[in-house]
Each structure stands twice: as structure tokens, then as C-alpha cells.
């Protein structure tokens, strides 16, 4: 169960990757292609944190982080069948962007390094009591769109489960209680209990009395119109920071709300997979408020993150910031997760 996913980070000028080419010619030789300035520049400035902060992130590595296994299951069945529920009105381009991220998780996806599938590999290091790992294979097994807002434009945690009930009652959207997880994505005009105030997303499981089975699910909202400075930070910044520093970062795919959702979706899927019934991997003694593998690394995106730094990330020639690559040439900015091997936050763009 995720705690507030307030991306507490800090702005900055990051990696500028230039790959310009020039032709060199001589009187006796034909033109030759020469590569110049191919080495990225890594810049990781410190900026003040946001005041609205209840993050549990642990900046760096330490034996003091008592992440423990509590004998529950992880999502080890392969593939993990993901069922998407689009609640409200979504543009086709927004749906495609989110699906490209999800389809980039599996290792079979062709993508440049550092890649989304390498990021998911860290999640797959978590095991259950039989030694079975979280599956590396994630498949979008079905989609359902609720354009009519069948449960209203405001949802509670309980009514989100009713949205799942509505979806699974619509054939051929199944109740997959063996390999399935359900991802509810609410449009930018849908308000949700505690959204923007305390959470940007969360995960839990359905009650058998409502759905008939215990089904792991996650919810993430599009904050683009409601609170981008909270849930899409650092692609939007709070008003009190206006004029301080370089300003908001440019999102890698040009959509502040959906680009901001991508990192929250990654956060929730990592925790849903390693702690689907809230009795597997988490720190702390209270299972109703666990600190999970995403919470420990909230706001960290690269090497050198922590203490006011987001970490070393990349910036393309158009000024768009990212730290990993996905399918079809997509780029994403996704927070790191806690590695059980390194006992530290880890990501595929690590420099050490």
C-alpha cells in the first residue's frame, strides 16, 4: 500500500546529450562522418525540497533500513496479466504512452540502455518463501474503458473497487484471480479520495464480498489539471518556487500529467508485485501503513540523489528530461526502487 507519492525532488539542469555530426572533407578523400560531443554531461544541482512532504524515502544505503519479508506471496506467476481500466475520458495518445511504458517492462522488449526492463529486473529480485521471484514478464491482457463515469466523477477507495466490479462484469473482461492484477487509471477531471492531498496513487486488494475474489489492484490518477505540482513534480513546480532556480523540467513525452503518472505507475506496480496482499516485503511493524520498496526511494532518479538532489539524469537536445528508455523509442523519467541485493536504491542509469 503506497504512502503519499509526492515526488519530492528538486529541479535542475541535467544531462545534455548532444550527438551532432559534421562532415570533414579533403582534396583527395571523400567526405567522412565524424562523431562529436557524444559524451553526456551530468549535472545534479541541489535545490530546496517542497514543504508538503511526508515522504519516507531513504537517501542512500544503510543497514538501518529494516525491509523484511513477512511470508506472504509475490507476483511470481508468469506472465503477470495486467488488466487496464480507463475511467473517464482519455485521449488515444495518452493511452498509448502509458501502454508503451507497461509493455517496456518485460525483458523481450527491444530498447536502448538504460532501459525500463532493466529497472523492472530490480523488482524481480524479490522472492516468496519458496524462492520464486517476481515475474519479469508483464502482459497487458485486457482493457476496459468507462467513458460514462458510471460511479461518478468522484471516487472513494471503496468505490474504486466498485469500478473493478463493473469492469469484470463486462465480458470479455475476466476475473483473473490466479495471474491477474488490475490497474485503474482515472482521467484528469476525476477526483479521488485523498488524491493530491495525501496520495498520487495506491495499491491494495479487492474484498471477496464485493468482487467474489481477492484481486490485487492499483490506482493512479492524472494530476494534470488538479495538482501537477504535487503528483507530476518535477514537471510542474509549486507557485512558491516560481522564479527560483531553472523552473520545471520538460517532460520526456510532452504531457505533464501523463508523464508524471508514469513514475507513479512504476512505483505502484513495483510495490504491488512485491507486496500484493500487504503481507510480503515491507519495512515497519504496521501492515496498514507499510514502507515499501518504492517508498524508500521516492524522489530519487539517479546516482548522487538524496539530500536535496534528484540524481544524475539525462536531457535530450529538445531539453526533455529522462532516465530510461522504452519500446518504440520512448523515454521516461521513473523513480528508483530499493534493491534487496544492494540494500540501496537502484536504477538502470546508475553511474557506479
From TrEMBL:
It comes from the Eukaryota. The keyword Signal applies. Residues 1-24 form the signal peptide. InterPro entries: EXORDIUM-like. Keywords: Apoplast, Secreted, Signal. It is found in: Secreted, Extracellular space, Apoplast. Belongs to the EXORDIUM family. PANTHER family: PROTEIN EXORDIUM-LIKE 5. This is Protein EXORDIUM-like 5. The lineage of its organism: Eukaryota, Viridiplantae, Streptophyta, Embryophyta, Tracheophyta.
Amino acid at each position: 500500500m503506497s504512502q503519499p507519492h509526492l515526488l519530492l525532488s528538486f529541479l535542475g539542469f541535467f544531462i545534455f546529450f548532444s550527438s551532432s555530426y559534421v562532415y570533414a572533407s579533403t582534396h583527395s578523400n571523400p567526405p567522412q562522418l565524424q562523431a562529436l560531443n557524444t559524451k553526456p554531461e551530468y549535472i545534479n544541482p541541489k535545490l530546496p525540497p517542497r514543504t508538503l512532504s511526508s515522504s519516507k524515502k531513504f537517501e542512500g544505503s544503510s543497514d538501518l533500513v529494516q525491509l523484511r519479508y513477512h511470508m506472504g506471496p509475490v507476483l511470481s506467476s508468469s506472465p503477470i496479466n495486467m488488466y487496464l481500466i480507463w475511467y473517464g475520458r482519455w485521449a488515444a495518445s495518452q493511452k498509448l504512452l502509458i501502454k508503451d511504458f507497461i509493455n517496456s517492462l518485460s525483458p523481450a522488449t527491444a530498447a536502448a540502455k538504460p532501459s525500463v526492463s532493466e529497472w523492472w529486473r530490480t523488482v524481480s529480485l524479490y522472492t516468496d518463501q519458496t524462492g520464486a521471484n517476481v515475474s519479469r514478464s508483464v502482459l497487458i491482457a485486457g482493457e476496459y474503458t468507462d467513458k460514462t463515469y458510471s460511479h461518478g466523477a468522484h471516487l472513494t477507495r471503496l468505490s474504486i473497487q466498485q469500478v473493478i466490479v463493473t469492469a469484470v462484469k463486462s465480458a470479455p473482461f475476466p476475473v483473473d484471480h490466479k495471474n491477474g492484477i488490475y490497474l485503474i487509471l482515472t482521467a484528469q477531471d476525476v477526483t479521488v479520495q485523498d488524491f493530491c492531498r495525501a496520495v498520487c496513487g495506491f495499491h491494495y486488494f479487492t474484498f471477496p464480498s464485493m468482487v467474489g475474489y481477492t484481486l490485487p489492484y492499483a490506482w493512479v490518477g492524472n494530476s494534470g489539471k488538479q495538482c501537477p505540482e504535487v503528483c507530476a513534480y518535477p514537471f510542474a513546480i509549486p507557485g512558491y518556487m516560481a522564479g527560483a532556480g531553472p523552473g520545471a523540467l520538460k517532460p520526456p513525452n510532452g504531457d505533464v500529467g501523463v508523464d508524471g503518472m508514469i513514475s507513479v505507475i512504476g512505483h505502484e506496480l513495483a510495490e504491488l508485485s512485491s507486496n500484493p496482499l500487504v503481507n510480503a516485503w515491507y519495512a515497519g511493524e504496521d501492515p496498514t501503513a507499510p514502507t515499501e520498496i518504492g517508498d524508500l526511494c521516492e524522489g530519487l532518479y539517479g546516482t548522487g540523489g538524496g539530500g536535496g538532489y534528484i540524481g544524475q539524469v539525462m536531457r535530450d537536445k529538445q531539453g526533455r528530461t529522462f532516465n530510461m528508455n522504452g519500446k518504440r523509442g520512448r523515454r521516461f523519467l521513473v523513480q528508483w526502487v530499493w534493491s534487496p541485493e544492494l540494500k540501496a536504491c537502484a536504477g538502470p542509469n546508475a553511474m557506479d
